[in-house]
């Protein structure tokens, strides 16, 4: 979500204002859509909304997307195991397409209900995407490129926010006649990205470990690796996958494909929650995904327009400056694959969390005294940009794929689903509570986010093992003893 609904700089300090963190579209389009909802409800039901009623209804429009995300996350484990990784990807695209069609025709049909349906369907798709797509990417990736491919989901989210900001500008589609195009424009991108779907491979690990289709797994492995792949490489990968089979199945059985081995290695969410050997990695995944939302990224974007206005920019210029901050976020994201290939996960995650905590604290101090020190307005912009920079090198991309590096194939879908659930739940908490806290605390609203980043830094410092360049069989024993684990001991 991109918080950018502001009117003037005084919103930072005036408790009478009630700006909302609502979506990745800008304030112009949101005002137009709210107005349309009000008029449509009156025309359809004869109900006249007060300002408070309209705000309550708009909060429902906003939150139903997040509720869809929570439901989609919970279903991610089941979908990934039952449909497979590739077809899960297709289901995400189908739901996104259906949601886009609802958006496109809700104004034509004068139906607020269609807008709500579109929101929850797209929320379902988003929840499924965050729990299944990073897993699919990392399972396809060779060991050396696992992190580089894993960050592509994060890059897609960041790019989508920027596209949403641009498309919903008043100069583009953020008008009374065209706002439905601002909501449904993404369908064009969905269709483009799904053109190569027939040529995409299924995850060899899913086929081998979960479905026990040995021959299919070998064929897909060769297709992923290329025609010139050496037999030695294929044998190494098969042996690595064999080690991820359940302990009760010996190596020979794990490689067979007859009817005697139809039993799969699926793990339910409940079985993962009860397994003490999975406690620590599950805490790490949920803490990183939830902490990503509680780290203040939405709050920082929320305040950025007001801060840009406080240095003398007009409302229009501040809006474009906020778009520039989003573009900086995307620009840094383009370097994520290189960072993941060249630097250790621990170093990037710890640096990101620690520096985000530092700049959030600085922003709290600066915003509190912004009226007393003339140059603090410019300092606040520097703090925002540095926060965005350090957020995107670790807290932005790593939570999306770290579950695929801490869990074996069997419990991986459930772990990714629970991590995604933590992310969406914390997203919902921030959306519901941020305005209340901002009205009550003013500039100090950044302190809970600062504390989150500090707590994450300590947790990762003590318990996050280094996963870069290591096979899962090397990582799992490091975190198998819960909080008694010593993941940094060689």
UniProtKB/TrEMBL annotation:
- Keywords in alphabetical order: Glycoprotein, Membrane, Transmembrane, Transmembrane helix, Transport
Task: Note the topology in the membrane.
Answer: Multi-pass membrane protein
One function term, GO molecular function aspect: hexose transmembrane transporter activity
GO cellular component terms, alphabetically, are:
membrane
The residue ranges crossing the membrane are 57-80, 89-110, 116-137, 149-167, 179-200, 347-370, 376-402, 414-434, 440-464
- Which parts of the sequence belong to the Major facilitator superfamily (MFS) profile domain? 1-468
Q: Looking at the keywords, is Transport present?
A: yes
The entry's localization annotation reads: Membrane
InterPro entries (alphabetical): GLUT, MFS_dom, MFS_sugar_transport-like, MFS_trans_sf, Sugar/inositol_transpt, Sugar_transporter_CS
Q: Which Pfam families match?
A: Sugar_tr (PF00083)
Question: Where are the coiled-coil regions?
Answer: none
Q: Which domain of life is it from?
A: Eukaryota
Q: Which PANTHER family match?
A: FI08437P-RELATED (PTHR23503:SF127), SOLUTE CARRIER FAMILY 2 (PTHR23503)
What family does the Swiss-Prot or TrEMBL record give for this protein?
Belongs to the major facilitator superfamily. Sugar transporter (TC 2.A.1.1) family.
Q: Can you name this protein?
A: Major facilitator superfamily (MFS) profile domain-containing protein
């Amino acid at each position: 979500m991109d918080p950018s609904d502001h009117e003037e700089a005084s919103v930072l300090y005036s408790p009478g204002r009630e700006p909302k963190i609502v979506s990745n579209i800008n304030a112009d389009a949101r005002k137009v859509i709210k107005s349309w909802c009000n008029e449509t409800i009156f025309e359809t039901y004869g109900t006249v909304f007060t300002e408070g009623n309209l705000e309550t209804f708009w909060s429902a429009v906003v939150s139903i997307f997040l509720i869809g995300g929570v439901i989609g996350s919970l279903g991610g484990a089941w979908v990934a195991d039952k449909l497979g990784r590739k077809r899960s990807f297709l289901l995400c695209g189908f739901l996104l397409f259906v949601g886009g069609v609802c958006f496109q025709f809700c104004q034509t049909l004068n139906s607020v209900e269609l807008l709500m349906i579109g929101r929850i369907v797209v929320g379902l798709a988003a929840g499924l995407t965050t729990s299944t797509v990073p897993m699919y990417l990392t399972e396809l990736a060779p060991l050396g490129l696992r992190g580089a491919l894993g960050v592509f989901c994060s890059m897609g989210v960041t790019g989508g926010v920027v596209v949403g900001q641009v498309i919903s500008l008043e100069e583009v589609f953020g008008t009374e006649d065209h706002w439905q195009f601002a909501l449904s424009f993404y369908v064009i991108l969905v269709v483009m990205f799904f053109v190569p779907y027939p040529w995409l491979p299924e995850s060899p690990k899913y086929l081998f470990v979960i479905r026990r289709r040995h021959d299919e797994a070998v064929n897909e492995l060769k297709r992923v690796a290329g025609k010139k792949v050496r037999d030695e490489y294929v044998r190494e990968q098969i042996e690595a996958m064999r080690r991820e089979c359940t302990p009760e199945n010996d190596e020979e059985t794990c490689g067979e494909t007859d009817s005697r081995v139809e039993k799969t290695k699926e793990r339910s969410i409940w079985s993962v929650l009860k397994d003490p050997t999975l406690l620590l990695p599950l805490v790490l995944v949920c803490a990183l995904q939830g902490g990503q939302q509680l780290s203040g990224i939405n709050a920082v974007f929320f305040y950025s327009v007001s801060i840009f206005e406080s240095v003398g920019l007009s409302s229009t210029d501040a809006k474009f400056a906020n778009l520039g901050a989003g573009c900086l976020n995307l620009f840094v994201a383009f370097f994520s694959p290189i960072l993941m290939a060249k630097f250790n996960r621990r170093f990037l995650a710890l640096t990101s969390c620690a520096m985000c905590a530092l700049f959030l604290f600085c922003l709290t101090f600066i915003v509190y005294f912004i009226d007393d020190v003339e140059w603090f307005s410019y300092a606040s912009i520097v703090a925002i940009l540095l926060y965005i920079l350090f957020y995107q090198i670790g807290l932005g991309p790593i939570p999306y794929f770290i579950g695929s590096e801490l869990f074996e194939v069997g419990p991986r879908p459930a772990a990714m689903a629970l991590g995604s659930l933590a992310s969406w739940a914390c997203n919902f908490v921030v959306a519901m509570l941020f305005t209340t806290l901002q009205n009550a605390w003013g500039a100090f609203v950044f302190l809970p986010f600062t504390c989150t980043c500090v707590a994450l830094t300590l947790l990762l410092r003590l318990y996050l093992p280094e996963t870069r360049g290591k096979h899962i069989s090397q990582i799992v024993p490091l975190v198998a003893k819960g909080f008694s684990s010593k993941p940094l001991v060689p």
